[in-house]
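Lab manual, section 2.4: Encoding a predicted structure.

Procedure: take the sequence of the chain (214 residues), apply the prediction step described in section 2.3, and record the output as structure tokens. A sample record is shown.
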Amino acid sequence: MTNMELFAEPEISTLHFERLAQKHGFSGVVGIDEAGRGPLAGPVVAAAVILPETFTLDGLTDSKKLSEKKREKLFPLIRNQARAYGIGLASAVEVDRINILQATLLAMQRALQKIGTQADYLLIDGITPLPVELPQQTLKKGDSRSLSIAAASILAKVARDRIMLQLDRHYPGYGFAGHKGYGTLAHRQAIAARGPVAPHRLTFGGVREHVQTS
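Recorded output:
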């Protein structure tokens, strides 16, 4: 693992870090982001994306700033234009076993593995580097500063939302389709009334109080 920060120039665009890495000889610059660290249920999902050098896509920004409809519209456009992309996840069981931070890093590594040898430099949203032998840079609020990370944030968010819609069909009564596993009042009330089910993170507050220990 090599944390190689390329801060030699002021940020002038949301492709600043990609262009700077390319200037230093890297050709496979990967943006990596996740969705679903905070919910009480469902997997944490990560995406890794290599954008083409000529990439442009109107409206692309941090997925949290976009409506669900807009994210769904951008999702296939990003996949079709990306040089390479991968989506990986860590299950609720894995979140409980190794903790949410380690599960997030695991999901990111699984997404990165799907890109393969094309990757030679990583731009990662957040402050925690990946335990892989590739040059990389972590970026606070990276989904607003790097177009590659923004693209990854949309792929991860849409993929996770679709998983939660599937879980809603398998576990009716919890409202997964609406709150996507987050700890809304209605979700917490459903857990209290019905008890946790398989997609729930049993180590998270709001769930663990209702786990049957007998």
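Check your result against the sample. The beta strands are 2-3, 29-35, 44-50, 84-90, 121-125, 135-139.
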